[in-house]
């Protein structure tokens, strides 16, 4: 695994534990020689994870839409900053560049990014791992929702396996190293289960 895209909040959240663990993730990525691909901003958890990678001598590639650069949130110290025209272009570029995806705590934008990449995995558009770094049990309600989707038969058990939720950067990266994507359902040839 050479690169991981990280989706996370543009704020630091209500507790210092969020930033502390974003820093730990950045340090662990740098230690393993994994390039960080992220949204390119210098604020919130986004800035914290990027700074941590850079401080450890790692590589960081930011992907930022022009309209956000004009709001003066572009990180100036990155290995590379790629400017794009839209949020859609940003997500597509990050998806192309990354070998895996980790969501840290964040708001609706973070969840939207995670759900799109998860859905692409479910559809077989990629076979890369999709993780939730469950800092301070932030994602417990979401993990419960995935369990409910499976229980209520709105998601097959094999797709529930796409959700990798762990409490530490080390644990999530270990799971990534052994990840095997489920087979993709073709609605024409498989019975609905």
What do you see in this structure?
The structure is a single chain. Helix 1 runs parallel beside helix 2. The longest helix is centred in the first third of the chain and has 16 residues, at 16-31. The protein has a seven-stranded parallel beta sheet, with helices on both faces. 43% of the residues lie in helices and 16% in strands. The protein has eight helices and seven strands; from the N terminus they run βαβαβαβαβαβααβα.
Blueprint (SSEs and pairs):
Blueprint: E1 3-7, H1 16-31, E2 35-38, H2 44-55, E3 60-65, H3 66-69, E4 80-84, H4 87-97, E5 101-103, H5 108-122, E6 130-133, H6 140-151, H7 157-160, E7 163-166, H8 169-177
Parallel strand pairs: 1-2, 1-5, 2-3, 3-4, 5-6, 6-7
List keywords for this structure.
193 residues; alpha/beta; 43% helix
Brief synopsis:
The protein is built from 8 helices and 7 strands, in the order E-H-E-H-E-H-E-H-E-H-E-H-H-E-H.
As a percent range, the share of helical residues equals 40-55%
**Uncertain spans:** none
Individual helix count: 8
- Average pLDDT figure: 93
Q: What percentage of amino acids are in beta strands?
A: 15-25%
Q: CA-to-CA gap between the ends? A: 33 Å
Total number of beta strands: 7
Q: Would you tell me the structural class of the helices and strands?
A: alpha/beta
Order of helical and strand elements: EHEHEHEHEHEHHEH
Major sheet strand order = 4-3-2-1-5-6-7
Biggest sheet record: 7 strands, parallel
Question: Radius of gyration, Cα only, in angstroms?
Answer: 16 Å
Protein name: Cytokinin riboside 5'-monophosphate phosphoribohydrolase
Keywords: Cytokinin biosynthesis, Hydrolase
Organism: Paenibacillus anseongense
InterPro entries: LOG, LOG_fam
């Amino acid at each position: 695994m050479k690169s991981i895209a990280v989706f996370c909040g543009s704020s630091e959240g209500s507790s210092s534990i969020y930033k502390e663990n974003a820093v730990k993730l950045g340090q662990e990525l740098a230690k393993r020689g994994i390039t960080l691909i992220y949204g390119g901003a210098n604020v919130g958890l986004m800035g914290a994870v990027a700074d941590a990678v850079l401080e450890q001598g790692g590589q960081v590639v930011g992907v930022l839409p022009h309209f956000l650069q004009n709001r003066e949130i572009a990180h100036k110290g990155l290995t590379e900053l790629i400017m794009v025209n839209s949020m859609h272009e940003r997500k597509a570029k990050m998806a192309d560049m990354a070998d895996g995806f980790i969501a840290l705590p964040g708001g609706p934008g973070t969840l939207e990014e995670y759900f799109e990449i998860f859905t692409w995995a479910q559809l077989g558009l990629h076979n890369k791992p999709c993780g939730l770094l469950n800092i301070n049990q932030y994602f417990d309600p979401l993990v419960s929702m995935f369990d409910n989707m499976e229980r209520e038969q709105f998601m097959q058990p094999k797709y529930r396996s796409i959700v990798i939720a762990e409490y530490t950067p080390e644990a999530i990266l270990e799971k990534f190293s052994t990840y095997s994507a489920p087979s993709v359902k073709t609605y024409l040839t498989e019975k609905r289960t």
